[in-house]
Structures are given as structure tokens and as C-alpha cells.
Here is the input.
Amino acid sequence: MTSITGATITVGVIGDPVRHSLSPMLHNAAFAALGFDAVSAAYPVTAGDDAGRAAVEAMRTLGIRGLSVTMPHKEGVAAAADHRTAAVDALGAANCLVNDDGVITAHSTDGDGLLRSLQLESAVDVRGCEVVVIGAGGAARAVIDSLGRAGAAVAVINRSADRAAAAAALAGERGRVGAFADVSAADVVINATPIGMGSDPGTPIEPTLLRAGQVVVDLIYHPARTALLDAAVAAGAKAVNGLPMLLHQAAMQLELWTGVAAPVAAMRDVVAANFS
Here is the structure.
């Protein structure tokens, strides 16, 4: 895209805060690679009881084709959308909106973005795998829902047994409350907690529980190498940070808005430039 015209399609990302989001750079790089007359921008939407609904109505009124949605608006936009996918209904939250001539559909691409990233970037198909998910917050719930739909057996570890049970239920009969003893037997271990980020450099589990042959995923992407991933490498496991999930959930959003395959290589260059 060399210029913005009256025919340019608009998409964006909403959140509070949102100026730090990589979504506009990822999606604008994709539009440029595709030759699409479209542009993505960040729209700060202040947190409030009706903010999500107001954003959906603004999207409808202004003819914005699509929105990425970050905290704290994922629940509000899900409730306000005209249609919701099965994942959004289960989670009560959405991270992507699509506007089809004023009809807004809410999607969740986080969990499926992780599964696609594992399959395409690490040659891991989770169907039939034993997976341990550490955490029961929003990111964990999205991942657990997708894992269950993909046919993985999911054990959820969380400090609150009630929250672990509620999150595990998203995987249906394949989900259960787990314990640290499950980690060593798992094929895939996923950290969906903030432990290891910023001023919290620890690990969510004892490193001695990890073993060779496992895939250990930390949804944290800054820093790119956490103490958990260092421990995974030391144990002979494959270590994967959150950047592939970030990339592929954004690619899936673009595909929902455009109907064409995302230029993942161009989007990967943006990720590499910002997290080298």
C-alpha cells in the first residue's frame, strides 16, 4: 500500500492500553505483501462497563472491516457481537471481530493460533497427546478449549483447584485437574502464567520434572528465553516461546478479514525485527 484513499479498507486493534500492540505492524506488513488496499491502526478504547458494546457499534457504524481485541474488552465484545463461534461461546471472550455488511461475528484465534504454530513451526500435532497446561486465566482457557477440540488429553494445574476444574471443563471429557506429578509424563507442557516475565524470573514448575523428548511451550514472548525454556533445553526437551502463537493468531485474524491465506513470512519478519 502506497497511499490511503476513500476505498481503503480499515481494520485495527482495540484495548486499554493498546499503543504497544504489534497487531498494526503485523497486519500492515501482510497487506503490503498481498497488495491489499487496506490499513490497520490502534484504537485506544478506555475500559468501562459498556466499552466493548460501544466499540462494536462504532465498528458497525464506521464500516471497519475487522478488529483485533485485547484486554480488557474481550468479554464485552463477545457479548455485543451478533454471532459468536463455538469457542467464543465456551470462553465468553473474543479476540477478533469480523464485520460483514454490519453483521459482527466474534472469533477466538489465540488457542487455534497456538495449535497452528505448533504444527507448522514445530511439527507437533496435539491429537492424542497428553498435555499439561499450567494456569487457568484467559490465555490458558483459550488454549485448553482448542486442545480439547483438537483431541488432546488436557491436565490443568493451578493454585486454585476450583479455577483449574472450570478451565479443564473447557476440554470436555478430555480435560481434568492435574498435579505436578503429571508434568513428567506429558508430551507437551504449556506455561500460561506470567511466571518468568519481567521481574518474576522464576519457573512455574520444578525444572527437574522436565525430560527429554517433551515439547515445552512458554506463552511468554518477552523475554524470548525464560528460565522455564532454559530448563527445557537443559533437560533435552524442545523449547518454544510465545512468538509463534503471536504470529499465527494474527495470521488467522487476517484470513478471517480477507478470505485469503496470510503471508506468514512477511509477518514473521516483523516479529523478528521487534524481538531479535
